[in-house]
Design goal:
The complex is a heterodimer of chains A (418) and B (296). Chain A is of the alpha/beta class and 418 residues long. Chain A is built from 17 helices and 14 strands. Chain B has 296 residues and is mostly helical. Chain B contains twelve helices and two strands. The chains are: A alpha/beta (418), B mainly alpha (296).
């Protein structure tokens, strides 16, 4: 063997070893610092939004070092799953309120019931962290959906823009009037053909009418008369509605071709930038009748959880509570412009009650609902989506669709009873 | 050297080692691991609770209407795109035989979709199919009413299939064109002397000699089409009403949304077997033949 070939041989071996070591290193993470705790925090916000809060906490707690990692909505859940499977999960993590119940159920989250008991009345959205009488997450920021009303189209249709629809009848009437303005102009927007969205809009009407997915005893009541009535009303809106994906509906509203839609506060920010001249207002989601039902809507929350396996639970919980506290949640909400603090203090803060549109969102969250805190929710929402979609496409009678969805929800619930 | 009989790795093995390490980590290991998973009830949030369930995950396949729907949609996708793409690619490759101006630019333009990320193409087509998108605007120019291409369960899958054909034709046309240039001109001259027309030339000269390349195109495209996923994830997420739910989309949902990794692995192996069977059929049918028409 010549020395030269020997060298190449070792170089290749070294390269292979380097490749393997690099893989091994991916999962190997420093858990503790030399002079105090290192808390790993995974979250979905832009670092520009979150970093100031982290800096503030680190300045107050020189012994705790926060390592922030930004996840994306497209792959974040997968990354958290992989981390849990390999034991490399962070200490503190942001989780969406519809994902949280599965994590609570699997027993990977630290029980924060004591925090709940102390802070129960200061925050909204605790329900989504509840599982079998214990609480597994801290409500951080929340966002509900409210009725967007195009005032110019209202005027053109002979409607009073200062009197947005309060009831189902008024909503239907306004939608019909606006849709008569001409082709390409729609009275109302209905979500179709995509995930995560449809049930949020439909359930607003079902909840407002006293319907629900489960009753208090945990029985499935998705095919109750109250839900059926809501679905039948939703179908009445269909002839005057643009049925499209959320981004298309938001786009149509922005360009003044959609009279009304139920959507989220992200539009306030976008419309301010992209359509400063758009004359619109925000109203509570209409209720069934003046003397019946409620202005219900869907609300989702970003929750903060501490993983049970964290070696830094105390510091982790301290950091999570710091973020959850009103001043921090407020800073985050104002910087992000699409959410509101879960803390009830926001209800009386001029920063959230001066702008009439923002105030409606804050008000709407008081009568909004979270999705049931069930570990099988991700599958259950698909069943609801399917029922509404099948009815909207006219494939099946609404009653049949709801019976079928109720049966599916029942089946999913049964799988999680172990 | 004293111990001559010691096993010595040939030099080439040392050069292959870095690649082999990556291959083992990212292909062999997941391949074996997912086979093991197929027999387990495994969920990454609760690894400690992993249970051996025997062939229960396999049995579920047969009574699962969602899998049935995904299988149907995937086969529709494969059967509806692969032959069309191949035929169009053959046609385009045939055009390139003639003298066309700016042939280089034409080839480059054809190949362009292949270097774009599928996500980019899918996002562009989402805009293209949108209510106010280019397609509906063009149709409006002819007085045809707009259509929600991706929100209508009848048109969503065909819309994605059309996009796939558009994106794939160029690549396969280049492959077939490269194969065609290896056919000796003398054969075409002979065909011309015999008085063969364009179709007869294609039928008796080009097609038989392109068979291996066509087999390659069919096999590669079939395997790729069975795995159609990113397009669906970006454009429709399997909807509306499950009309674009494909096998890999279903696999993805089963694993990453429902955390049912065992069953998802079974679906993965179903995709593997199906694309294998289709590829073998394609290769057998397009085996190069001897002059007497027997397979070589």
């Amino acid at each position: 063997m010549t020395p030269r070939r020997g060298f190449l041989r070792y170089a290749c071996l070294a390269a292979s070893a380097a490749v393997l070591v690099a893989f091994a290193a991916c999962g190997d993470k420093e858990k503790t610092g030399d002079d105090g705790a290192v808390v790993h925090f995974w979250q979905f916000w832009d670092l520009a939004v979150i970093q100031p809060l982290v800096d503030e906490f680190e300045a107050q707690h020189p012994d705790i070092d926060i390592e922030v990692e930004q996840l994306t909505w497209a792959t974040g859940l997968e990354k958290i799953q992989a981390a849990l499977a390999s034991g490399t999960q962070p200490d503190v993590c942001e989780l969406g309120s519809t994902w949280l119940p599965r994590f609570s159920y699997e027993g990977v989250l630290e029980d924060v019931t004591p925090v709940y008991e102390a802070e129960r009345d200061s925050f909204l959205m605790w329900e989504s962290a509840l599982w079998k009488g214990r609480v597994y997450g801290l409500p951080w920021v929340q966002g509900s959906r409210a009725l967007f009303v195009n005032r110019s189209l209202f005027r053109r249709a002979g409607l009073d823009p200062d009197q947005p629809p309060q009831t189902w009848d008024e909503l239907l009437h306004a939608a019909e009037k606006i849709s008569q303005l001409g082709t390409g102009i729609y009275g109302f927007g209905q979500n179709i053909g995509e995930r995560y969205v449809l049930y949020k809009k439909f359930m607003a009407f079902a909840w407002g009418n006293g319907g629900d997915v489960f009753d208090e005893s945990g029985e499935v009541v998705l095919n109750s008369p109250a839900v059926l009535e809501a679905l039948e009303f939703y179908l009445k809106l269909a002839p005057y509605s643009l049925q499209e994906k959320q981004e298309v509906l938001d786009q149509y509203f922005k360009t003044g071709r959609l009279g009304m839609q139920v959507s989220g506060a992200w539009n306030l920010k976008n419309y301010k930038l992209e359509a400063p001249d758009l004359d619109y207002s925000v109203a509570l989601v209409p209720k069934p009748a003046p003397d019946h039902g409620a202005h219900a809507s869907f609300a989702g929350a970003e929750m903060l959880v501490v993983f049970k396996a964290s070696p830094q639970k105390e510091a982790a919980l301290q950091f999570a509570r710091f973020l959850q506290a009103y001043p921090q949640a407020k800073k985050l909400s104002l910087a992000a412009g699409s959410v509101f603090p879960a803390a009830l203090s926001a209800m009386h803060d001029p920063d959230f009650t001066t702008d009439p549109r923002v105030r409606v969102f804050v008000e709407q969250s008081l009568t909004s609902r979270t999705t049931p805190a069930h570990p099988g929710w991700i599958e259950m929402e698909e069943a609801i989506d399917r029922a509404v979609e099948e009815s909207l496409y006219g494939r099946r009678a609404p009653r049949w669709c709801l019976d079928e969805a109720a049966r599916e929800v029942q089946e999913i619930a049964a799988r999680f009873q172990r | 050297m004293t111990n001559r009989r010691r096993f010595v790795l040939p030099p080439v093995a040392w050069f292959l080692l870095p690649w082999a390490a990556v291959y083992a980590a990212f292909f062999v290991f997941p391949f074996v691991f997912s086979f093991v998973l197929a027999f387990l009830d495994y969920n990454p949030l609760n690894v400690a609770n992993t249970r051996f369930v025997g062939t229960a995950n396999f049995a579920r396949l047969f009574g699962d209407p969602a899998f049935g729907g995904a299988l149907r949609n995937t086969i529709l996708f494969v059967v509806g795109t692969v032959p069309v793409t191949t035929a169009l690619a053959l046609g385009v490759a045939g055009l390139m035989r003639g003298k066309i101006p700016l042939k280089g630019a034409f080839k480059a333009a054809l190949f362009l979709p292949s270097i774009l990320s599928v996500v980019v193409i899918a996002l562009l087509f989402k805009l293209f199919y949108a209510p106010g998108g280019a397609l509906n605007q063009a149709l409006a120019g002819f007085g045809v009413a707009g259509h929600g291409w991706l929100t209508d369960p009848r048109t969503a899958l065909p819309a994605i299939m059309a996009m796939d054909v558009w994106a794939a034709v160029g690549y396969y046309a280049i492959v077939l064109d490269a194969a065609r240039t290896s056919i000796p001109d003398s054969l075409y001259e002979a065909a011309e002397l015999e008085g063969a027309g364009a179709w007869a030339t294609f039928r008796h000269v080009t097609f038989p000699l392109l068979k291996p390349a066509i087999a390659f195109v069919l096999v590669i495209n079939t395997i790729r089409s069975f795995q159609v996923f990113v397009e669906v994830l970006v454009m429709t997420q399997g909807g509306p009403l499950g009309s674009t739910n494909t096998l890999v989309m279903y696999l993805y949902d089963t694993a990453f949304r429902r955390l049912d990794y065992g069953y998802a692995s079974v679906v993965a192996y179903a995709v593997f077997l199906l694309s294998g069977v289709f590829s073998i059929i394609a290769m057998r049918r397009l085996r190069p033949e001897t002059a007497e028409g027997r397979p070589i």
